[in-house]
Amino acid sequence: MGMKKRAEGGLVFSTEQGRMCPGCRNPVSDCTCGQPERPQGDGVVRVSRETKGRKGKGVTLVTGIPMDDKELKAYAKVLKAKCGTGGTVKDGVVEIQGDQRDILVPLLEAKGWTVKRAGG
User: What sections of the chain are H helices per DSSP?
Assistant: First the structure.
């Protein structure tokens, strides 16, 4: 089994797995360096309303959706279209403009998730 090592001591190439990532020391095909790790929630999707830092304008926050970033962004687009408003995805939290809780709760429950109304 032939292996090459770097001066820093990291494995660069292994005949078993091929090229190795210097950051996470996994094979390049299984590299986890560029993927943000989001903490696993408790399995409950929470829908809340918030106005802090928005000059009194309210937004609806949806947290705890069990999707990765790419899927979450696509699903947020669907939710925004159903509400007929704008919004964004920040750090795994979907923000939708206005108080849209009455529209969002049934849509999220239809996906089979446990949904709770949280906050004001």
Answer: 69-83, 101-110
Name the strand (E) or helix (H) holding 78. Answer: helix 69-83
CATH number at residue 74: 3.30.780.10
Q: For 38, phi and psi rounded to 5 degrees?
A: -95, 130
Written as six digits, the tokens of 68 are 């990765």
In three-state secondary structure terms, 21 is coil
Helix axes 101-110, 69-83, angle to 10 degrees: 130
State mean pLDDT over 83-93: 91
**Single pTM value for the model:** 0.66
CB-based contacts of 37, cutoff 8 Å, min separation 6: none
Q: Average pLDDT of 42-70?
A: 87
Read off the pLDDT of each residue in 56-63 and give the average, rounded to a whole number: 90
Tokens of 64: 């705890």
Residue 2 is predicted with a pLDDT of: 53
- Domain membership of residue 34 (yes or no) is no
- Split into its structural domains, the chain has a count of 1
